[in-house]
Design a protein that fits this description.
The protein is of the alpha+beta class. The protein contains 17 helices and 45 strands.
Length: about 800
């Protein structure tokens, strides 16, 4: 029965009517905001574009016009998957106005007046049994507003329809929340044409189903069905990368009634990438959808890296040209390889990418930089007609917010600002006498403006470095711009500063790398950048530079780094020993800070068999965005990792920021000393009511979960996790066999890594009993470190040492500690 606060979870939603929302071209006020994700209001991001200003004036506080109910025949049936709202979130590269209808139902035991609460970001009108009863129009980007309303329910079935609209800019939260407050005895119902019993059985199946692995390397991909479908199922699966990915595959499948497993495909048929499996299927006449995710690795097929660095450069370019996805970075690799097949692919990719640049899609700057490199260096390898189209796009592009436009390109973050200024600088020099329409100046002047802005950008970077600290996703974006400047800049000072920045970023990656995989706190993270071992671009970078790692299909900088090394004599320090740390007599401790005003202080520790990194004294108890503030690895297997966060949403593989895995709804108190760390959460409603850890049991050589403790070992690397309450290993749903949950928004985790082949003995030596003092100080008695004291001022003391984040420097300090 419905209780106060119960969401209505079963929805039908019509196909969205979408149309570009264009306003007159105009410049924008603003400048780079490197701290944009340090949110002031929960986890909502600031900065308002002209299209949003226009939409607010058009719609805020004004009811949308009533309309006749739609034809529901083509509506999608949406099951809740644990979510308290209908979630239509996604990514729109241009401002797009969407309209649609959604409906759910209430089954009332008696007629009577009910009170409900409707939440929406854009604008909505509610109808109960065809009668308009309420509306609200906050027109606020990504921030849900709510209204409480009353409605007369009839005995039996009551349809509640929501007519809605919103303006979508880039990552858009499109959610409809309908919550029961009070009324006659009733229960949640639906408007599906299927029998309730069938819907219940299908829902149970969908909630429990999962892929047989989360990491594939040449295996077949099987769908596991702990609760089988009651009738035969047929459907399709769209297999694609994340929202910036350009390629996808489509497969058909069938499942017999009662089947507990079904083979879907061979993993080798898909690119080396984290892929999302979007199911659309019909069971007994009822059609619905579901989403699962997994990494597809080509580790076995690719084999180990060559010992010779020159051979690794050629291997990188060849692999990207043949296997990377449709992206201008791939086109650059194709142009560099120069075979007829690769050049044909370069032309195809550029032709596909140009419309996004011509229309100033969000993230078009990501595509423009490698396209400029290709145009500048390899014009003799492209058709003249294509060069003419590229040049036209260059002259039409919007290079900064002070130029007129009506796009929603994201100008504010440090990495985007670098790419916009790099593009203006290089494009202007390429076409010095041509007129850049939006800037209303010739190329020489445009290049000079780019130069001045780059000099300011370097001034900021050289004092603050990465705002999106240590991010496996955004290291490559910075390196994209910096390598282009190093290779192609016509000013020696720009080239020199770019090289110094490249060296600095590569040094940070090396210090955080562990056998080819970055391990550490990250300022921005996604499911596809965390739940991976082999396909993050930084693993390809580690393979190229240090001989350990693997390639992934999504590349932003790898071709450029390879070319900078091969053709432009980029001289990098040899950091192989640090990156591939194999010493058994010593460990490395690395402390530094990142961001404007040192807003994030970072700690990293690694041995040959363990690695763990964390953010120290970072925003404790704040609402989080996409920060992952602790990550660890054990052994020599890249996939044997652990990270802990507070999910931002219940839906797995969703678009939230933070999402289920990517980021943390509440930022925990994290403190670390060598291989030991504590993680304390203090979340609040309406954040999800549990915290969790990534715990990939299929990867470990051995593991256990017993009450409040979990242990795992891979090779000689081991870990023990202890929590403030019972830990539940999820065995069903998308994270089956990979997720530990701790109930409640408040919770304490302790983590200890170490080197051993005796997991039981190691766990017995490390009870991880946490003692709390009245002032909030936490202590652990460690058999190796002695008394470890974690104080509320952020300091940690042990072994006669004090780690004080306030003492850490931007340059960082690397210390070798004996083992």
């Amino acid at each position: 029965m419905l209780q106060t606060g119960t969401p209505l979870p079963y929805w039908q939603v019509t196909p969205l009517q979408a149309a570009e929302y264009n306003v007159a071209d105009m410049p924008m006020e603003g400048k780079m905001d490197s701290t944009f994700f340090l949110t002031k209001e929960k986890n909502f991001i600031p900065h308002t574009y002209p299209c949003r200003t226009a939409y607010i004036a058009e719609q805020r506080g004004k009811p949308i016009d009533t309309a006749e109910a739609p034809d529901w025949a083509g509506a999608r049936n949406v099951l809740p998957a644990g979510s308290p709202f209908l979630d239509l979130s996604g990514f729109w590269f241009r401002a797009t106005k969407i309209r649609g209808w959604a409906r759910t139902a209430i089954e009332a035991k008696h007629a009577g007046k009910a009170q409900l609460k409707l939440g929406i970001c854009g604008a909505a009108r509610a109808y109960v049994n065809g009668v308009a009863v309420a509306w609200l129009s906050p027109a606020t980007r990504n921030a849900l507003d709510e209204i409480t309303f009353e409605a007369d329910l009839v005995q039996g079935h009551n349809e509640i329809a929501i007519q809605f609209e919103d303006l979508c800019e880039r990552d858009a939260v499109i959610r409809i929340a309908l919550t029961w407050i009070d009324g006659p005895e009733a229960q949640a119902a639906h408007c599906f044409s299927a029998e309730p019993a069938l819907v219940t059985r299908v829902e149970q199946t969908v909630d429990a189903m999962h892929l047989d692995r989360k990491h594939y390397d040449a295996q077949d991909i099987w769908l596991c069905l702990p609760t089988p479908f009651p009738e035969r199922v047929t459907g399709t699966i769209r297999v694609a990368g994340h929202f910036m990915s350009h390629d996808h595959d489509q497969i058909e499948f069938a499942i017999e009634a009662g089947a507990e497993r079904v083979r879907l495909a061979a993993a080798a048929d898909f690119p080396a990438d984290y892929r999302y499996f979007d199911f659309t299927f019909t069971c007994g006449g009822f059609t619905t959808s579901a989403r699962l995710g997994a990494e597809v690795s080509w580790r076995s097929a690719t084999g180990p890296a060559a010992q010779d660095p020159a051979q690794r450069i050629e291997e990188t370019l060849q692999w990207l040209a043949q296997h990377a996805e449709t992206d201008t970075e791939t086109a650059l690799a194709c142009a560099a390889v120069g075979t007829p097949e690769s050049l044909a692919r370069a032309v195809e990719i550029i032709t596909t990418a140009l419309p996004g640049i011509e229309q100033c899609f969000d993230c078009a700057d990501f595509a423009l930089v490698p396209l400029l490199w290709t145009r500048i260096v390899y014009p003799d390898r492209l058709p003249q007609a294509l060069i003419a189209r590229i040049d036209a796009a260059i002259l039409e592009f919007r290079y900064w917010m002070d130029e007129p436009g009506n796009d929603v390109q994201w100008y504010f973050s440090e990495n985007h600002a670098l790419l916009f200024h790099t593009s203006a600088y290089l494009a202007g020099n390429l076409l010095p006498d041509a007129r850049f329409r939006r800037a209303d100046r010739d190329g020489a002047a445009q290049s000079r403006v780019g130069y001045e802005r780059l000099m300011s950008w370097f001034d900021h970077f050289e004092t603050s470095e990465m705002a999106e600290f240590n991010s496996g996703t955004y290291f490559p974006i910075d390196l994209k711009g910096l390598t282009a400047l190093y290779a192609l800049a016509h000013d020696a000072d720009i080239r020199a500063r770019a090289k110094a920045a490249i060296v600095r970023l590569i040094t940070m990656v090396a210090h955080s790398a562990h056998h080819g995989v970055i391990t550490g706190a990250q300022g921005r993270s996604y499911e596809h950048s965390l739940c991976v071992a082999d396909t993050l671009e930084l693993t390809g970078l580690a393979r190229l530079l240090w001989g350990q790692g693997n390639f992934g299909a999504h590349a932003n900088c790898l071709a450029q780094i390879a070319l900078a090394l091969r053709d432009y004599r980029l001289d990098l320090p040899d950091l192989t020993e640090i990156a591939n740390w194999t010493r058994t007599d010593a460990a490395q401790e690395w402390t530094f800070w990142q961001g404007e005003n040192a807003f994030c202080r970072l700690y990293h520790y690694k041995t040959a068999q363990t690695a763990m990194g964390s953010a120290a004294l970072y925003r404790w108890k704040d609402w989080g965005y996409q920060e992952t503030v602790i990550q660890a690895r054990i052994g020599l297997e890249p996939a044997a990792q652990l990270f802990i966060n507070h999910p931002g949403e219940i839906v797995q593989s969703g678009f939230g920021r933070p999402s289920f895995w990517g980021g943390s709804a509440s930022v925990p108190r994290v403190q670390q000393y060598r291989d030991l760390a504590i993680v304390r959460f203090d979340g609040v409603a309406p954040q999800p009511d549990f915290t969790h850890a990534w715990f990939p049991t299929q990867i470990f050589d051995e593991w256990s979960v017993d009450q409040h403790r979990a242990t795992a070992r891979h090779g000689q690397g081991a870990l023990v996790v202890s929590a403030s309450g019972p830990l539940e290993l999820m065995t069903e749903g998308g994270s089956a066999h990979h997720e530990l949950r701790l109930a409640g928004r408040q919770g304490l985790w302790a983590v200890r890594l170490g080197t051993t082949e005796d997991l039981g003995g190691f766990a017995a030596r490390h009870p991880l009993t946490v003692t709390e003092m009245p002032d909030g100080t936490l202590t652990i008695e460690d058999p190796d470190y002695g008394t470890v004291v974690f104080r509320v001022d952020g300091t940690v003391t042990a072994q006669g040492r004090t780690l004080n984040p306030a003492d850490w420097t931007r340059e960082g300090q690397r210390v070798e500690l004996p083992l």
